[in-house]
Amino acid sequence: MFALLRSMWEVFLHAFRKRATIPYPERVAFLPPRWRGRIILSRDPGGQERCVACYLCAVACPVDCISLQAAEDEDGRRYPEFFRINFSRCIFCGFCEEACPTCAIQLTPDFEMSEYHRPNLVYEKGDLLISGPGKYPDYDFWKVSGVAIRGKGKGEGVEERPPADPRGLMP
Amino acid sequence: MPTIHVEGRPYEVPEGLNLLDACLSLGFDVPHFCWHPALGSVGACRQCAVKQFKDENDTKGVIVMACMTPARDGTRVSIADAEAAEFRRSVVEWLMLNHPHDCPVCDEGGECHLQDMTVMTGHDYRKTRLPKRTFRNQDLGPFVAHEMNRCIECYRCVRFYRDYAGGRDFGVFGAHDHVYFGRMESGALASEFSGNLVEVCPTGVFTDKTLHSHYARKWDLSTAPSVCVHCSLGCNTLPGERYGMLRRVRNRYHPDVNGYFLCDRGRYGYEFVNGERRLTLALARGEPVSPEAAVEEASRLLAAARGVVGIGSPRATLETLFALRELVGPERLCSGLAARDLEPLRRAMRGLSGAVPAASLADVRAADAALLLGGDPTGGAPMLALALRRSARVAPVARLASHVPAWNDAAVRQAIQRESGPLFVASTAPTRVDDIATARVVSAPADVARLGFAVARRLGAAGDEVRLHRDAHAFARDAAAALAAAERPVVVADAASGEAVVAAAAEVAEALAARGSGVRLALALPECDSAGLALAGGFPLEDALASLRSGEADTLVVAENDLFRRLPPALAEELLSLARGVIALDCVRTPTVERAHVALPAATFADGTGTLVSSEGRAQRSFAAMPPSGDARESWKWLARLAGDAGGGGRWETEDAVLDALSGLPGLAGARDAAPPASFRLVGMKVAREPHRYSGRTSMRADVDVKEGQPPADADSPLAFTMQGFQGFPPPPLVPRYWAGGWNSVQALLRYQVQAGGALRGGSPGIRLLDGGRSDGGSPSAEAGRFPVPEAFEPRRGEWLLVGAPAIFGSEELSSLSPSVASLAPRPYVGLSPEDAERAGLREGGRVRVGAGEASAELPLRLVPGLPRGVAIVPEGLRAMPAEVRPGGYARVEAAGEEAEPR
C-alpha cells in the first residue's frame, strides 16, 4: 500500500521536472555535426566532384546498399558515372565515410527522410551531391595523388619532384 | 628429398628449389616481389629476407635473400625472426618512399601485390616528408595502360617481356632512383603477349586499358572458370562480369596448358560479348520477335522441310554439335567447313590420335628439341609460339644443371647468353620465332611438306628418299640428327598449313616414336572446338551444297557458323538462296544471320556453359560467368527445343542431361567428366561466382525495383550466381577466382598449387579424349594410308601461289569484333618477296590487282623479305579483306591500272 502511494507521488513529481521531449517539428533538436544521418557527396574546394569512384564505400557497406560505376572525364579525373544509395537498406553506420579516401562521402546531421514509398528512398547522384566541401573544407585528393589530370601535370602535385629524365646520366 | 627446418620444425621439400619457393609452397607467408614462379629469381627487390642459421646451436644467424638461397638438406631458417621481419618492413618502407598516393584511382587497387606485401610486413605509416620522384607515362597502345610513378623497380616486366616472351621494343632505362620501364618512345607494344604485364606487374604500373574504360574492382566481379575461344589451344581464363557486362578476362592457371600467361587475343578479344554486333534477341526475317514466336516459326520451317541439313561449326561447343546431330540425324550433319579446311583437320586428328601422344603446351615448353613445320604459330595459336620460346631454352639450361640451378635466372641468362636449343623452323613465310631458330628455311607449302617427309625418311620412316635442294638438304640432315638425339622432342605444325604439311609432321613424329623417343606431336587447329567438330563428324560444305542443288534437302540449320567465311561468296550465296528455310543460331550478327529466316541468339563463352576440345584433345568445361544476356541461351538448348517440337528425342533441359546423352558417342565418352556435374556440392553448397566481398547487392537494381529479387538459378553448373555459396578452395575445374587470406592479388594462386609453378591441388582440369583411342592399338594414321609426298613447288610466270598468313589480331572471327583487337588488325595487303616484286616491276605500298579467274581485287603491296619465289602471302580471315582474294590457289598479281597516290 505504501509502495503504491510512493510510486504515485514520484510520478506526480515528474510533472515539475525539466522536459526531455521537445515539441518537434515546431522546435528542432540540436544534432552534433558528427551525427550519422543522411549521406551526401561533397565537392572539393575547386567545386568539382570529390568522389573518384574507388568503390571503397561500396565494399565497406555492411548492407551493400551503395553501388556506382567508375568513369573518366576528358580531364583525366575519375568520377562516378552513377552513384546510388538505397536508403531503405542503409543502417547509417558511417563505414562508408570512414572508408572514403577523398572525404567525398559524408554523413550529415539530417534524419528527416521518411517516405511512403520505398523507391523514393533510392537516392541517385543528383540527390546526393551537395555544392560544398562539407566537413573538410581544404582537402583536394587530386593535388596529392600521383596521376596527372588537366591543370596538374606530372610532378606538380604536393611534395613531388619534377618528372625524372630516364635518359639522363647525371646523379 | 632434402629436409629444411623452418622455425625449428623439419619439412621435406622437393629437390632443387630455392628457399622462397620451398617456404611459399609449404604455406608460409613470405613477402616477395621480383621472384615469379615462371621467371625465376634475380634477387632484385630484397624483400624476401629470412634468417638462416648454420646449425641447431646457431642463435645469431645471418639474413639471406630466400629467393637466392638453395633449399639444401639441413638448411635452417626463420621467417618470423624479429631482425628479418624488421628488415622486410624497412624494405617496403623504402619502396614506398616514392609510391604515389594513388590507390583510390589505381586499377590495381584491391588486387595489388604491393598492397598485400605492405600489409603483410606491417609497414603502416609514412615517416618521411621527402618529395616523391615522378615520371611521365607513355602510350603503350590499346591494351596496356602505363603509370610509371607507381613502379617499385622489381624488374618483373622486362624479365617477362624481353627474356621470357622475346619482345624487343620494351626495356629499362635510367639509373639509381629514376629507373624507367617503357619503350624508347610512345607506341603500341609489339609483343603479342604484352597483356601479361598486367598480371606480372606486382603493382599498378601496367594495368588493363580495356578494363579501365568500364572499370570494376576485383571484389565486384562475378567470375567463373572459362576456356578461351579465340584459338584451338584451350587456354584457361577467368572472365569477370559486373552489371550484366563482361569487364575483363584474366589468366586461369593450368599447369599443362597456358601456365601463367595468355596471349593478347585471348585476353582482349572478349569485348565482342558487349559489342554492338552481339545478337541477344531472336529474329524472324530480320525483325526482333519473342523467343516463343521464333521457335514456333523455326519448327514450322523444319516441319515443312523436304530435307534438313545441319551445319556445325568449329567454334560451337560439343553440346551444340551433338544437339545439332541429334536434331538432323548423323547422316545429315555437315561440319560447316569447306573441304580444303576439313581435310587438313581430319588429317591432323588422325595424327593426334595416332601412335604419338598429342603435346600439351607444357610438353612443348619442356621439349629439348623442336621442329616447326608450316605457318607461324604466332598468328593462329599464339601461346604455342611462346611455348616454343621456352623450349628453346631447355637444352642450354640442362647443360648448366650441374652447377647453376635453373631458378637462378640472372646466372642462367649470363651463362647461356643467346644460345638457344635445337629449334628447326621450316615455314612458308618468315615467323616471329625466327630469332631463336637453330636453322630455318622458308619455302612454299609443298616444299615445307617435302622437307618434313625428308626428315621423317632420315629418321627411318618407310618410303623413298625425298630429293631436296642444297639448303633444305642440310636443314633436313641437321634437324633429323637433333631430333634423334633429343629425349623429349616435339614436332609442331599448324593444320592451316595444309594436309601435306600436317601429314609430314605426323610422319616425323611417328618415325621418332618408332625409335623409342619420348616425342610429342603439337598440331594447332584452326578454332576453339575444331577437335570437337572432328570428333562429332560431318561432311564438307560442298556436299551440303550438292544436296541442296539436287533438291534432296531444302532447309538449313546453321549453328554458330558464318558461311561467308567458309566458302567463296558466290557459293555461300548460292547455298543460302537454294534453301527454302534457313535457321541460324549465333552470338553475333554475321552475314549468315542477316540472311536467315529465323535467327536464334546464342550464348557466348561468358554467358553460357559448354565443353570445348582443344588441339591437345583436352575436353574442358567452360562455365558462364554471367546469366544469359537478353534472350540468348546456349545453342544446344534452342536445338533441343526444336527437336522436342519436332516430336523427336533429345529434349534435354540441363547440361548434365545433354552430356550424359553425348557420352554415348565414340571418342566423346570422357567429355562428361571434364568437370564435376551440376549436382556437385561442397559442404552442401554450390561454388559462389561472386566473391565474399561483393558489393552493391541491395542497390545495384534498386533503380528498377527496390525489392531484391531471387538471383538467377543455374541448373547447368555447380556454380551459383550469388555470393552465397562455397568461398574456399574448390576443385580446379571450378575455381572462379584466386583469393587467399592476406593474398588479394593474383599471387594468391600459390595457395591453389601443390608446388609454386607446379601442379594444382586436385589435379589438372580437363580430360584428354584422344589418349583413349590409342590404347586400342594400331595407328589410325597408318591405316588411313600414307599421304603421298607432294611434287616440288615450281614458281609460275605471272602467277603466284597465295598463302594465307593468319594475323593474331584480326584473323579470328570473334576477337576481331573487339575494338581493341580490331585497332591492331593489319590493313589488307598482298606480300611478295622484294626480288619477285622487282622482277614484276611492283613497288612497296603500290596498288596491285590480285585476281584468280574472273574475280579480282585491288590491294596495296607489301614487300616481305625472305619470302620464297613464286609465293605471295595474304592475311587470312580479315574482315576488311576483299572476298575475291582467298588463299590456297594461284592468282595473278599485277600493277593496278593507274597507281594510286601513296598515302
What does this structure look like?
The complex is a heterodimer of chains A (171) and B (903). Chain A is an alpha+beta fold and 171 residues long. Chain A has helices at 2-14, 56-60, 95-99, 125-128, 141-144; strands spanning 39-41, 66-72, 78-86, 105-107, 122-123, 160-163. Chain A has a domain at 31-144: Alpha-Beta Plaits (2-Layer Sandwich). Chain A has 5 helices and 6 strands. In chain A, the strands form 2 sheets. Chain A has a 3-stranded antiparallel beta sheet with strand order 2-3-5. Chain A is elongated, with a radius of gyration of 24 Å. The mean pLDDT of chain A is 93. Chain B is an alpha/beta fold and 903 residues long. Chain B has 5 domains: 3-95, Ubiquitin-like (UB roll) (Roll); 108-115 and 130-213, Alpha-Beta Plaits (2-Layer Sandwich); 282-336 and 538-752, 3-Layer(aba) Sandwich (Rossmann fold); 362-492 and 518-528, Dimethylsulfoxide Reductase, domain 2 (3-Layer(aba) Sandwich); 799-895, Barwin-like endoglucanases, CATH 2.40.40. Helix content of chain B is 27%, strand content 18%. Chain B has 28 helices and 37 strands. Chain B has a 7-stranded mixed beta sheet, with helices on both faces. Chain B has a 6-stranded mixed beta sheet with strand order 33-35-34-37-32-36. The model of chain B is unreliable at 775-781 and 899-903 (pLDDT under 50). At the A-B interface, α2, β2, β3 and β6 of A face β6 of B. β6 of chain A pairs parallel with β6 (132-134) of chain B.
Task: Set down the secondary structure blueprint.
The complex is a heterodimer of chains A (171) and B (903).
Chain A (H helix, E strand, L loop, with lengths): L1 H13 L24 E3 L14 H5 L5 E7 L5 E9 L8 H5 L5 E3 L14 E2 L1 H4 L12 H4 L15 E4 L8
Antiparallel strand pairs in A: 1-4, 2-3, 3-5
Chain B lengths: L2 E4 L2 E4 L6 H7 L23 E5 L8 E4 L10 E3 L3 H14 L17 H9 L10 E3 L9 E3 L9 H9 L6 E3 L6 E3 L13 H5 L5 E3 H4 L9 E2 L2 E2 L8 E7 L2 E7 L12 H5 L13 E3 L2 E3 L1 H14 L3 E4 L6 H11 L4 E2 L4 H14 L8 H5 L3 E6 L2 H4 L1 H19 L8 H8 L6 E5 L11 E4 L2 H14 L11 H16 L3 E6 L4 H16 L5 E5 L5 H7 L4 H9 L5 E5 L3 H4 L2 H10 L2 E6 L4 H5 L2 E4 L8 E4 L4 E5 L12 H11 L9 H8 L24 E2 L30 E2 L46 E2 L1 H5 L5 H4 L15 E8 L12 H4 L7 E3 L1 H6 L7 E6 L2 E9 L7 E6 L13 E6 L8
Parallel strand pairs in B: 1-5, 17-18, 17-24, 19-20, 19-22, 20-21, 22-23, 24-25, 25-26, 29-30, 32-36, 33-35
Antiparallel strand pairs in B: 1-2, 3-4, 3-5, 7-10, 8-9, 11-13, 12-13, 13-14, 15-16, 15-26, 27-28, 28-31, 32-37, 34-35, 34-37
Helix pairs in contact in B: 8-23, 9-23, 9-24, 10-17, 10-18, 15-16, 15-17, 19-21
